[in-house]
Automatic annotation (TrEMBL):
Main location: cytoplasm
Active site: K364
Record flagged with keyword Cytoplasm: yes
Name of the protein in question: Glutamine--fructose-6-phosphate aminotransferase [isomerizing]
Annotated source species: Fodinibius salsisoli
Organism lineage: Bacteria, Pseudomonadati, Balneolota, Balneolia, Balneolales
Keywords attached to this entry: Aminotransferase, Cytoplasm, Glutamine amidotransferase, Repeat, Transferase
Length: 369
């Protein structure tokens, strides 16, 4: 056990710090920066069908579902492909409207989640092409899909998913760029920029990890907060959900993720001097709106933790604490903004004496329905 943790006190921390390598492994051989192209060998045989699909339905559970939500924004933005993201457990018990013109994409780290497998089988019975994004090679879901892409994150032992999430989002970004190019919905110059930027993501993740000490210090101050609110917009709304989930899973603090604008329809009533609010403000075109959200929180004495671009002085100055992240393309920002949130939940859980790698009541892979 100790040897496998390579000197880290927990698998979760090891896996957080492995992300530059995990993402690099995931991208390896798939990005051609010089020729501005993406190759996903696992999809070659089904690419035409995927390019001509009417709709993509994404089904998953837990953290993988959050990756799916980022995927929705990516596919709609880059490939102009309508997407629906479903909780696998809901999809399977409805009478889902899905047919041979649709593509079902299931996302699963383990490839064994019972509800996700059932959603996949339901979609296949109705004639949809079934694709998978899995981490575990040869897993049941990987075998049951018609085609797919592995994340190549390496084994993930900590129950709370970290490197599986960032590699899932990396795969979805590559798929969306590839589809955008094939469907002619993405400008060549923009595709080239995204491919170059994806290639730089491992280094940028490394830069964020180099500043982990400051997240640790911040965690000291919030260790005993009873509640947390996470707010994000567009690509970073799923990151808000994921940040809140991480905190719940391992530190047992009640946390909610919300699209920032929805705050005024409920959560704003909870804000007072006891409420830390994590604001993920890393998408340019919603920056002004996020700044007004921050002001609304501050007017109620809420405490702002800002996750924002390192050049975004306005948000940094308005935040009580901030985690500046290197600048990147808006649609790739979840690959960076999710990192400080993983670290924050990890350090808080450790301070609270929680069993980080094996939180109570949770399983790494849920094979019951
Ligand atoms: C469990 C794990 C989560 C994971 C979810 C889906 O709840 O604790 O970390 O996100 O299952 O798992 P999968 O293997 O399908 O991605």
């Amino acid at each position: 056990d100790e040897i496998e943790k390579s000197g880290y006190p927990h698998f979760m921390l090891k896996e957080i710090f492995e992300q530059p390598r995990a993402i690099a492994d995931c991208l390896r051989g798939r990005l051609d920066v010089k020729n501005h192209s993406v190759q996903l060998g696992g999809l070659t045989d089904v690419l035409d069908q995927l390019v001509n699909a009417d709709r993509l339905v994404i089904a998953a559970c837990g953290t993988s579902w959050h990756a799916g939500l980022v995927g929705e924004y990516l596919f709609e933005h880059l490939a102009k492909l309508p997407v629906e993201v479903e909780y696998a457990s809901e999809f399977r018990y409805r009478e889902p409207l899905i047919d041979e013109n649709d593509v079902m994409l299931v996302i699963s780290q383990s490839g064994e989640t019972a509800d996700t497998l059932a959603a996949l089988r339901t979609a296949k019975e109705r004639g949809a092409l079934a694709l998978g994004v899995c981490n575990v090679v040869g897993s049941t879901i990987a075998r049951d899909t018609d085609a797919g892409v592995y994340t190549h994150a390496g084994p993930e032992i900590g129950v709370a998913s970290t490197k599986a999430f960032t590699t899932q989002v990396s795969v979805l970004a590559m798929m969306a760029i590839l589809l955008g190019q094939k469907r002619n919905t993405i400008e060549e110059e923009y595709a080239a920029r995204l491919i170059e930027e994806l290639n730089r993501i491992p280094d940028k993740v490394e830069q964020i990890l180099d500043r982990s000490e400051s997240v640790k210090e911040m965690a000291e101050l919030f260790t005993y907060a009873p509640n947390f609110l996470y707010l994000g917009r567009t690509y970073n709304f799923p990151v808000a959900l994921e940040g809140a989930l991480k905190l719940k899973e391992i530190s047992y603090i009640h946390a909610e993720g919300y699209p920032a604008a929805e705050m005024k329809h409920g959560p704003i009533a909870l804000i007072d001097a006891m409420m830390p609010v994590v604001v993920i403000a890393a998408t340019d075109h919603t920056n002004d709106k996020m700044i007004s959200n921050i002001e609304e929180v501050k007017a109620r004495k809420g405490r702002i933790i800002g996750i924002t671009g390192e050049d975004n002085e306005e948000v940094i100055n308005l935040s009580e604490f901030s985690c500046p992240i290197p600048e990147t393309e808006d649609c790739l920002s979840p690959l960076l903004t999710s990192i400080p949130l993983q670290l924050l939940s990890y350090y808080i859980a450790v301070n609270r004496g929680c069993d980080v790698d094996q939180p109570r009541n949770l399983a790494k892979s849920v094979t019951v329905e």
